[in-house]
Design goal:
- By secondary structure, the protein is α/β, with parallel strands linked by helices.
- The chain contains eleven helices and nine strands.
- The protein has a single domain, classed as Vaccinia Virus protein VP39 (Rossmann fold).
- It is 44% helix and 17% strand.
- A seven-stranded mixed sheet has the order 3-2-1-4-5-9-8, with helices on both faces.
């Protein structure tokens, strides 16, 4: 079972006021997220699912239609540069999206599965986020976090290298950051990004004594995505060209598997 781009585009383009570029940006991410998450959602014992950072609500809406017997809840404060997403989610009928940050979200019932895609890097206090989501899980529940890995010095939203740290990078690329936020309508996006990488996240998990693992195979799927997804390739600029070059001359596995160069994306699976 997979989501079809033509089907999604025909169905949702009107919600984006027929802005094809904006729609493509969202739908290609929805399709990618679905591929990464569906095997965790599909089992019969998974009955309650929480999506953190529901954004436009497209993924949540499709999951609700595909799995009508499961309960889906979304949480999204529509902050940190993503104010426009709420306008789209409101156009969809009967989406259960709570307009709160996850730290302020309360639920009497717990969840079998929690997931977030490209949300964790926008969380100010990641240790509080991990503790909160862990406490929202049922026993044997899982929390899937898919996000950039800033151990590799690259910022994918702005397609910029990270020079030493976030503050210095902003000083150097101030004009480019400002232009991106103005063009995209995502004011405050840069300031809302947390550039902690995998190493820092692992330290948090170990301190909290939480069971976790990383799905390292996401490296191959992300590189394949650069070849197959033109919208994604265009978005990632020079990073996409670097990935293509490494794949074509067969050094991607040497770099990321043998030399252990940090891959700029990660998939974390937390189990209670």
């Amino acid at each position: 079972m997979q989501l079809n781009y033509k089907y999604l585009n025909k169905k949702y383009l009107k919600y984006f006021n027929y802005n094809k570029e904006y729609c493509n940006f969202v739908l290609t991410d929805v399709i990618f997220s679905f591929k990464e998450l569906n095997k965790f959602i599909k089992p019969k014992n998974i009955k309650s699912i929480l999506e953190i950072g529901s954004g436009t609500g497209v993924l949540l809406n499709e999951l609700k239609l595909l799995y009508p017997k499961k309960k889906f809840v979304g949480v999204d404060p529509n902050e940190s540069g993503f104010h426009n997403y709420e306008k789209i989610s409101k156009k969809m009928n009967k989406l259960n999206i709570v307009k709160k940050s996850v730290n302020n979200f309360k639920s009497k019932k717990k969840f079998d599965l929690i997931f977030s895609t490209n949300v964790f890097e926008h969380v100010k206090s990641q240790d509080k986020y991990i503790k909160k989501t862990y406490n929202l899980l049922n026993k044997n529940g899982k929390n899937i976090i898919i996000c950039p890995n800033y151990d590799f010095p690259y910022e994918p939203h702005f397609v910029l290298p990270i020079i030493l740290n976030k503050r210095i990078t902003k000083i150097i690329f101030r004009n480019l950051i400002y232009k991106h936020e103005k063009k995209s309508g995502e004011k405050g996006l840069w300031d809302g990004i947390n550039i902690n990488g995998k190493k820092k996240v692992e330290k948090i998990l170990k301190l909290l004594k939480i069971d976790y693992k990383f799905d390292h195979s996401i490296k191959d799927r992300m590189i394949d995505r650069v070849f197959k997804d033109d919208t994604f390739k265009k978005r990632q600029g020079i990073a996409a060209l670097l990935a293509i070059f490494c794949k074509l001359i067969y050094i991607d596995k040497l770099m990321f598997n043998i030399l252990k160069i940090p891959f700029p994306y990660m998939k974390l699976i937390i189990k209670k």
